[in-house]
Amino acid sequence: MKVAVAGCCHGALDKMYETLELLQRRHNVRPDLLLCCGDFQAVRNEADLRCMAVPAKYRHMQTFYRYYSGEKKAPVLTVFIGGNHEASNHLQELPYGGWVAPNIYYLGKVPSLWPGPCSPGPGVTGRPPCSAGYAGVVRFRGVRIGGISGIFKSHDYRKGHFECPPYNQQTIRSAYHVRNIEVFKLKQLKRPIDIFMSHDWPRSIYHYGNKKQLLKMKSFFRQEVESNTLGSPAASELLQHLKPTYWFSAHLHVKFAAFMQHETNSKEELPKATKFLALDKCLPHRDFLQIIEVEHDPSAGDSLEYDAEWIAVLKATNSLVNVTQSTWNMPEKNGLHAKWDYSATEEAIKEVLEELNHDLKIPCNFTPTAACYDPSKPQKHMEPVHTINPQTTEFCAQFGLTDINDRIQQAKAEGSGRGEYEEEEEEEEMDSTGSAEEPSDYNTDNSGLSSINPDEIMLDEEGGEEDLSTCSVDPSPDHPPDFSTSFSDIRIMPDSMAVSSDDAMDSNNEDLEKSGVSKQEEEKVSTERPLKRISGDENGNSGIKKIKRRNQAIYAAEDEDKTD
Fold first, then answer.
1. Boundaries of domain holding 363
2. Average pLDDT of the chain to the nearest whole number
3. Is 492 part of a structural domain of the chain?
4. Pseudo-torsion of CA 76, 80, 84, 90, nearest 10°?
5. Does residue 423 form part of some domain?
6. Rounded to whole angstroms, how far apart are CA atoms 424 and 410?
7. Which sign, positive or negative, has the C-alpha torsion 163, 169, 172, 174?
8. Cα-atom radius of gyration of the chain, to the nearest Å?
9. pLDDT (tens digit, 9 = 90+) per residue, 50-102?
């Protein structure tokens, strides 16, 4: 079957679907499924805009609300993950995934309950925290599709997802930071994954593609590439564990292809490889869309389906719910935990199938839960509220799971009565840099980009983003999208994925150079004006001042682009 993969959509659904329709008219190509790798921006109204972590001047309604209201319907089944520019209050309603509009499915935030006797961080007492993990797995025509939403920040990695609207300056950002529980749950999967999506790139993936061409297009990545700090270490861990056939990402706003040959753990294990592709953002003359041919089950139906193993993992970890922002550790086989393996047994998977009478079809039970934007009656002062979505209520009742939003509301009410909730928020504000807590599982703090990228919507602790109103695309008749990508360059690297000092092999990557970057992008490289790099302070610190200067440079570059 044909699968269309899109990069950062930024709410420009009309333009994205118009591009697909243009493909059908001109090239007789009609995809069966559309995947979007984050920054989808399912914004329904003005309150949702207030929950999106961008400066006020960059908050634009875009076109999703037309699909939410029923004015329009997505012409192709669309499945998406969250990025770092989302209406977090809307997506938080669907911790197990669900329909945000007819024919548009959010892959979900796995309600990550405290799975047994895990150990909290040093100095943490009381009940362990709960988090709402941004991940999920579904099936379509027999193809298994998984994903993890958000971006990596080490200082939030070991916390629970305690955030809920109305958000403050800290929680509006931390709400979409990847947590260790998400990675833990996904690592319980044993059956093969066909397609996996993440918003930020797996760290080190650039060593498996045409790194030379990447740095030619994005020279400001050089420092992070050479120090092996570009991308998400959590996503890299999942890549090595899940070994999916395809892995798609976005976030860095550049098209890049790579091929990773995985090491085998035993002589009996068959070799596996992953075809990686990062997509550009939605702008004219950009390769933000890719069509791939994926093997599928011809006998399978055309409905989106639950994944039985994933449901079994959720059921196995549904215990001891608590909603705090304390740090905590995942269970390990280290003598400290009574249980550390939460993978699904064949018996547990069979039980799920029996509960569903072997009908895994996800019900089309979309229900609006908020007023839709009306251009004739703007409500600029609409406030966000924490909503319980009936889709989540139905899902939890069907599988005996806990509705994390219901529990968060209870905990917030109880905590406010004792004055604890406000105290926790103050604690979070003081701890926003992560300096007051034990280091993360990973010793670096990179959300996927720490250099100046004039082409990227980057979120740092002080929150600097580009103008989202530019993120729409009309395909040019003279420059149709390039839909051919080759993955002929194979490299085998150890699990450590250490940086090779020998970059000479980049010169041999002609296939990837031709396929990973389109002619449109090459033309843009020659016409782009370079952006002067802004370094840290004299002491080499990379704190708030550096972040602010970096964001100012990004805004300046975006404004220059608009005036050209």
1. 2-115+129-416
2. 76
3. no
4. 90
5. no
6. 15
7. negative
8. 22
9. 999 988 877 899 999 999 999 999 999 999 999 999 999 999 999 899 999 99
Q: How far apart are CA 146 and CA 243, in angstroms?
A: 12
Structure tokens at 280: 């550009």
Residue 203 backbone class (left: φ over 0; alpha: ψ -120 to 50; beta: rest):
beta
- Inter-axis angle of helices 390-399 and 308-316, nearest 10: 80
pTM value > 0.70: yes
pLDDT digits (tens, 9 = 90+) for 133-162: 468 999 999 999 999 999 999 999 988 878
- Beta strands at 2-6 and 33-36: parallel, antiparallel or unpaired: parallel
10 Å Cβ neighbour count for 36? 31
Q: In whole angstroms, what is the distance from residue 44 CA to residue 142 CA?
A: 32
What CA–CA distance (Å, rounded) separates 33 from 79?
8
CA 365 to chain centre: 24
What are the helix (H) ranges across 443-484? Answer: none
Please give the Cα distance from 129 to 118 (Å, whole number): 10
Residues 399, 306: Cα–Cα separation, whole Å = 12
Distance of CA 215 to the CA centre of its chain: 24
Place of tokens 């390990």: 332
Bridge pairing between strands 304-306 and 135-140 = antiparallel
Contacts of 550 (CB under 8 A, 6+ apart): 452, 458, 460, 464, 534
Does some domain include residue 533?
no
> Is 505 part of a structural domain of the chain?
no
Question: Left (φ > 0), alpha (ψ -120 to 50) or beta: where does 175 sit?
Answer: alpha
pLDDT tens, position by position, 365-380: 999 999 999 999 999 8
Angstrom distance (rounded) from CA 495 to CA 15: 40
- The tokens 């509006």 sit on which residue? 172
Q: How many domains does the chain have?
A: 1
